[in-house]
Design goal:
The structure is a single chain. The chain is α/β, with parallel strands linked by helices and 433 residues long. Strands 1, 2, 3, 6, 7, 8, 9, 10 and 11 form a 9-stranded mixed beta sheet that branches. A two-stranded antiparallel ribbon has the order 4-5. Helices cover 50% and strands 13% of the residues. The chain has 2 domains: 164 residues, D-Maltodextrin-Binding Protein, domain 2 (3-Layer(aba) Sandwich); 206 residues, 3-Layer(aba) Sandwich (D-Maltodextrin-Binding Protein, domain 2). The N terminus is likely disordered.
């Protein structure tokens, strides 16, 4: 039996209660309700609240939920009849783009008035109208206030703070070669401050940092245990840790980035009217307010919702209006993989030596600084390389294409050799410092 025909425990309990209260009429009433099948990766804390609101607003429908993680969603929706799914609702931009390319989605059936479709430089809705953002996650800094207080450090407000010598040894950075969300973190300063300035900033931050190569929650685990004071992450990982008692808070830098979740109606929807009703709720003022529940704390995509939220609740639209959030996610999608690979070769692989060189440079005189700083802060490659579609394709397909792997590996070897040469020259110049 397909998953979507299996009633949830909540639906089962409600059905039993209705039978007890209404006797033989209850089965007839239940039969009159039509299912709306939603495929999602959201946890029950999110889905249950939308389910309750939807069935209250639309008693003619009953929500059926199929849980699939993003990597499993596409195969499921490629089944005959798209597995009976009416709505796909999840945080997986590539999956939505692929479904659109396969003509597996309908045009959005609801008005998007009041939804700007972008946050700063990032377009979050499909320009052709096949899917729309339902919320965004923000990139930024997880901090342990107690740890920072013990070390006499202020909470960082923006990227430049993390480059200060005082933060040496107190910063945790996910390795962008190994951690899926981290390539966007690499590209945010590169876009916000410019290629050369961005890499100089990253070199100084890397010198202060410890790199971790495990999943996103590991940053929160390390900070929660008091082993580090600041960690780069996405807000929902940190929100989950805070909900479980971790003594953390999240700082959204002025120049941040967003990762949108989307909602769409499948081309083969068995119940397009019910799908329209559910999508309408998710994007409505009331639905967007559900996202701000203390147990969820996501960032709505309807700007009007922020007017009634508690003080301190981050408003990305207000920050963007003041010049923040310059990150262009469309540009980033192509170049994030090669930029992350260059980051790995120039900053992660030689990290111990880089940190030692920065330590010596910070103690050097002005003349030495002027000679060494350009060597340590130089970009590992030209911006035109990571923006080259052929290079981007090589990094995206390297696991499946031997020729692509050979080209990507050759580029990495060149970036590593150039970084090593600069570091050796810097070490020679610092020898008498």
């Amino acid at each position: 039996m397909p998953d979507f025909f299996k009633p949830s425990r909540r639906a089962f309990i409600r059905g039993a209660g209705a039978l007890a209260a209404a006797g033989v009429t209850a089965p007839l009433e239940a039969a009159a309700r039509r299912d709306v099948v939603v495929l999602t990766a959201y946890p029950d804390a999110v889905v249950s609240r939308f389910e309750a609101a939807f069935e209250k607003a639309w008693p003619r429908y009953r929500l059926r939920v199929v849980w699939r993680m993003p990597h499993d969603a596409l195969p499921y929706l490629r089944q005959p009849g798209q597995g009976g799914v009416d709505v796909y609702w999840s945080a997986s931009p590539r999956t939505f783009a692929q479904l659109k390319a396969e003509q597996a989605l309908r045009k959005m059936p609801v008005s998007l008035i009041g939804l700007p479709g972008r946050v700063g430089g990032s377009v979050i809705d499909d320009p052709d109208g096949y899917f729309a953002a339902s919320e965004v996650a923000g990139y930024g800094f997880a901090v342990n206030p107690g740890y920072l207080a013990r070390h006499g450090l202020p909470a960082p407000a923006d990227w430049s703070d993390l480059a200060q010598p005082a933060y040496a040894g107190h910063v945790l950075v996910p390795d962008p070669v190994e951690v899926g969300f981290a390539p966007v973190l690499v590209d945010i300063p590169l876009q916000a401050y410019g290629w050369d300035t961005g890499w100089a900033l990253w070199s100084a931050i890397a010198a202060n940092a410890r790199f971790v190569g495990r999943g996103g929650s590991f940053v929160s685990d390390e900070l929660g245990a008091g082993r580090q004071g600041v960690g780069l992450s996405i807000d929902f990982f940190v929100a989950s840790a805070i909900a479980n008692g971790a003594p953390l808070r999240f700082v959204y830098p002025r120049q941040g980035g967003v990762n949108p979740a989307h909602v769409a109606v499948t081309a083969g929807s068995p119940n397009p009217d019910g799908a329209k009703a559910f999508v309408g709720l998710v994007l409505s003022e009331a639905g967007q307010r559900i996202l701000t529940h203390p147990d969820i704390r996501k960032l709505p995509v309807r700007p009007s919702v922020y007017a009634n939220l508690p003080a301190g609740y981050h408003d990305p639209f207000a920050t963007a209006a003041q010049g923040g959030y310059r990150y262009d996610n469309a540009l980033g999608r192509g170049r994030a993989a090669p930029a992350a690979a260059a980051f790995g070769q120039a900053l992660v692989r030689p990290h111990a030596r880089l940190a030692a060189l920065w330590q010596r440079l910070r103690a050097a005189d002005g003349g030495t600084w002027a000679k060494v700083w350009p060597l340590l802060s130089a970009a590992p490659c030209k911006e035109s390389e990571v923006d080259d579609p052929a290079v981007q394709q090589a990094f995206f397909t390297r696991r499946d294409d031997p020729a692509a792997e050979a080209r990507a590996a050759a580029l990495e070897a060149g970036w590593a050799a150039a970084a090593q040469a600069r570091h050796e020259k810097a070490a020679a110049l610092l020898g008498g410092a």
